[in-house]
Amino acid sequence: MSDCIFCKIAAGDIPSNKLYEDDRVLAFYDIEPKAPVHFLVITKEHIKGACEITGENSALIAHIFEVIAKLTAELKLDAFRVITNCGAQAGQSVFHLHFHVLSGRILGEMG
Ligand code: 5GP
Ligand code: ZN
Predict the structure, then answer these.
(1) Alpha-carbon gap, residue 61 to 39, rounded angstroms
(2) Threshold 0.90, pTM exceeds
(3) Where are the beta strands (DSSP E) in the chain?
(4) Which positions are annotated as active-site residues?
(5) 25-61 pLDDT tens trace
(6) How confident is the model over 90-97, as a mean pLDDT?
(7) Bridge-partner residues for 73, per DSSP?
(8) Per-residue confidence at 15, pLDDT binned at 50, 70, 90?
(9) CA gap 65, 41 in Å, rounded
(10) Which residue, judged by its Cα, is nearest atom 12 of ligand 1?
(11) Which of 1, 3, 30, 79 has the least C-beta neighbours within 10 A?
(12) Is 21 near ligand 1, meaning CB less than 6 Å away?
């Protein structure tokens, strides 16, 4: 999608502090970290958000969680939180599917 910031990051048109990349997903540090460790894992394919996960693309989501397990192990994070916001009211500001991984502080209760 031409006006999507995460598509531009996935294409390398906008630089990012990359942690991991393969043919399907990319992980990079959030530009405005909400915890001492805060990175995002995005699909390379433009998917609007969790509302667009279907039987056709859900293998990608399993892959994202494998990547999260690998990266958090490499970073020696034994406690972390994974969040995806779907819809503006839930706090989604970039409408391209992404999973936040937060760690390095006590994260508290949700909601
Ligand atoms: P959302 O609010 O949609 O759940 O999360 C979007 C996240 O993307 C925010 O935490 C925001 O700080 C991050 N973000 C927005 N633009 C950029 C960017 O250009 N580079 C990086 N690294 N992160 C970004
Ligand atoms: Zn996109």
Answers:
(1) 16
(2) yes
(3) 18-21, 25-29, 37-43, 81-83, 98-103
(4) 98
(5) 999 999 999 999 999 999 999 999 999 999 999 999 9
(6) 97
(7) none
(8) very high
(9) 9
(10) 32
(11) 3
(12) no
